[in-house]
Design brief:
Layout lengths: L1 E6 H7 L1 H6 L4 H16 L7 E6 L14 E5 L5 H17 L6 E5 L3 H9 L3 E3 L1 H8 L13 H5 L9 H17 L4
Helix pairs in contact: 4-5
InterPro entries: YacP-like
Pfam family, one: NYN_YacP
């Protein structure tokens, strides 16, 4: 069993895909993070468990988390302090022989990552986590991107009607010489 501890706000701030999915609505982005985490890391037949920590009171968050997931809002304490407590609890269980399985901490926060390292948890940066949730199709990369790509325009060649006629005439001559037209 793997227990994932996610620094929710840290992930949302560093992974623009969530805000895009939620049309810029932070509450929907939180819900999307929880749903995607449950789907990818804690699938139907999985014994994995995920706890997603957010800062704030969570007053507006009224959604039931999916199976094998738990959402915790910091209220009086920061989400970071809750994550650190959970890392320490898992370590203490391991020491007492009540192994709770592997702990994976997902955060870019230096203090959290350092604590995870000290207490033997696995650490994922938020970009590693995002790659698992939003796998990119392999694309051929150009050494020098087209200038239109840099500006966000689609690459499209516009050929004037005069050039189109000239190209057509040249192709006709070429293929007539080959005996194909």
């Amino acid at each position: 069993m793997i227990h994932y501890l996610l620094d929710g706000n840290n992930i949302l701030k560093s992974t623009p895909e969530f805000l895009k999915l939620a049309d810029g609505n932070f509450l929907r982005a939180q819900r999307e993070l929880v749903a995607q985490t449950a789907k990818v890391l804690c699938g139907k037949n999985s014994k994995n468990f995920a706890t997603i920590f957010f800062d704030g009171a969570g007053i507006d968050y009224k959604f039931q988390p999916p199976p094998n997931t738990k959402v915790i809002f910091g209220k009086e304490k920061s989400a970071d302090s809750f994550i650190i407590e959970e890392i320490k609890k898992a370590h203490n269980l391991r020491i007492r022989g009540k192994d709770s399985g592997q702990v994976v901490v997902i955060s870019d926060d230096r203090e959290i990552r350092e604590c995870a390292r000290i207490f033997g948890a696995t650490i994922w940066r938020t970009n590693e986590f995002a790659k698992k949730l939003f796998p990119q199709h392999k694309k051929k990369t150009r050494l020098h991107p087209h200038p239109h790509q840099l500006r966000g325009y689609p690459i499209e060649k516009i050929i004037s009607p005069a050039h189109q006629e000239k190209i057509t005439e040249e192709l006709k001559k070429y293929y007539q010489g080959k005996g194909r037209i």
